[in-house]
């Protein structure tokens, strides 16, 4: 099976993941039993598809997708799907879906045309083609078809256990080393104002010893900002912080405090430190994060993990998936975390647009029974398997 995706347009405001479209096309070809065939996808602008539309269909103006079958090819070539990303972007706004959701539908629509379906022949065939498209897209969305998502481990809870006795063990620095040896792609620590778990000594030594990447979670307050600027972690994640909360209870209201957060981001950028904003999966928060210059967003997965029914969990999952797409299409990099465990992680890890998951409590509690090395390896296996090509 061979699928090629190329582009011929100059539209820097439109971010398209060719890799995502390729993976979705591979999945669709397997589902339609043509995995041994070849397919070409060409992404163009309105001018080029207008020319093709007039040349081959005698219709002026742009359209969203054109299919050119090669049914007589001796090399099992299905043909070409040509998509205007300009038209697709406009239609995505009108339909209130993400660009990649709409592009996936256009690839599906184009592929079905190549396989002989034609909604223009009759009303019955139009209905049948529409039903098949919806079935394929729904199954694809529920299955996933994605890149390898990374696993970062939060070692705050190791420090919590240490501080409960006021002694030096267990040491979060040692825990971080074990996590890295077990395959973690990064270490996350939250330096709170009240120092309830991670303290200044911890972050100082961790900065010197972490071999992967250090993500410093922090509130946007003056004292912690100064520490971060001196420490220069690989990235910082700004989170809301309340003194009486047991753990972070929700995402930042970026839309409501853009000015304050923009100043902090500017300071970090000047020091060469990328900033992630921990937000709820809401369009207005994603847009606000983009507006003030964040490099990443980390989507809060707490409501998804805490859902008490499968229907509720599915709805929360869809909010996360949509927000991840929206962020990606704006040029933001996307992480996710909070409350993920050995049952809830796989579905989130299967989202292509999410680069990294931050997981702490579930792994540390699992380590009580099986050891930290094995707990990390078990979670890494879940993340890796979920994010493999379907």
| Rg over alpha carbons | 24 Å
Report low-confidence residues grouped into runs of 5 or more: none
CATH C-level category of the largest domain: Alpha Beta
Tally of DSSP helical segments: 16
Helix-strand makeup class: alpha/beta
State the major sheet. Answer: 8 strands, parallel, barrel
CATH topology of the largest domain, which one? TIM Barrel
What would you say this structure looks like, in words?
The structure is a single chain. An eight-stranded parallel beta barrel has the order 5-6-7-8-9-10-11-12, surrounded by eight helices. Strands 1-2-4-3 form a four-stranded mixed sheet, sandwiched between helices. The chain has helices spanning about 20-30, 45-55, 85-95, 100-115, 125-145, 155-165, 170-180, 200-210, 220-230, 260-270, 285-290, 300-305, 310-330, 345-350, 360-370, 370-385, and strands at about 1-10, 40-45, 65-70, 75-85, 150-155, 185-190, 215-220, 235-240, 275-280, 295-300, 335, 355-360. The two termini are about 15 Å apart. The chain is elongated. It is about 50% helix and about 15% strand. It contains 16 helices and twelve strands. The protein is α/β, with parallel strands linked by helices and about 400 residues long. The chain has two domains: about 1-145, Metalloproteases ("zincins"), catalytic domain (Collagenase (Catalytic Domain), 3-Layer(aba) Sandwich); about 150-385, TIM Barrel (Alpha-Beta Barrel).
């Amino acid at each position: 099976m061979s699928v090629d995706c190329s582009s011929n347009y100059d539209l820097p405001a439109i971010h398209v993941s060719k890799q995502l479209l390729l993976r979705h096309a591979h999945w669709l070809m397997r589902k339609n039993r043509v995995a041994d065939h070849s397919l070409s996808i060409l992404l163009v602008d309105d001018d080029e598809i207008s020319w093709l539309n007039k040349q081959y269909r005698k219709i002026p103006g742009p359209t969203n997708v054109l299919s050119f079958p090669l049914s007589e090819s001796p090399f099992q070539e299905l043909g070409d799907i040509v998509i205007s990303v300009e038209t697709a972007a406009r239609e995505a706004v009108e339909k209130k879906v993400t660009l990649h959701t709409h592009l996936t539908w256009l690839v599906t629509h184009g592929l079905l045309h190549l396989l002989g379906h034609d909604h223009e022949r009759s009303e019955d065939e139009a209905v049948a083609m529409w039903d098949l498209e919806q079935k394929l897209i729904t199954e694809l969305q529920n299955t996933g078809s994605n890149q390898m998502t990374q696993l970062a481990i939060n070692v705050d809870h190791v420090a919590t256990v240490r501080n409960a006795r006021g002694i030096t063990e267990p040491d979060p620095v040692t825990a971080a080393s074990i996590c890295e040896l077990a395959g973690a792609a990064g270490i996350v620590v939250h330096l709170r104002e009240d120092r309830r778990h991670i303290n200044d000594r911890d972050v100082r030594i961790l900065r010197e010893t972490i071999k992967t990447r250090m993500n410093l979670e922090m509130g946007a307050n003056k004292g912690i900002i100064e520490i971060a600027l001196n420490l220069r972690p690989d990235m910082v994640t700004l989170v809301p912080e309340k003194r009486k909360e047991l753990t972070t209870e929700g995402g930042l209201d970026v839309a409501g405090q853009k000015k304050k957060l923009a100043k902090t981001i500017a300071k970090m950028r000047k020091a060469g430190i990328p900033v992630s904003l921990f937000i709820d999966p809401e369009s207005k928060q994603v847009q606000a994060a983009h507006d003030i210059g964040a490099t990443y967003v980390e989507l809060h997965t707490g409501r998804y993990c805490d859902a008490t029914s499968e229907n509720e969990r599915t709805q929360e999952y869809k909010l996360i998936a949509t927000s991840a797409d929206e962020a990606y299409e704006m040029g933001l990099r996307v992480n996710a975390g909070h409350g993920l465990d050995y049952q809830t992680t796989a579905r989130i890890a299967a989202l292509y647009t999410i680069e990294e998951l931050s997981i702490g409590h579930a792994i540390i509690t699992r380590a009580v029974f099986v050891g930290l090395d094995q707990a990390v390896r078990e979670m890494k296996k879940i993340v890796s398997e979920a994010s493999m090509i379907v």
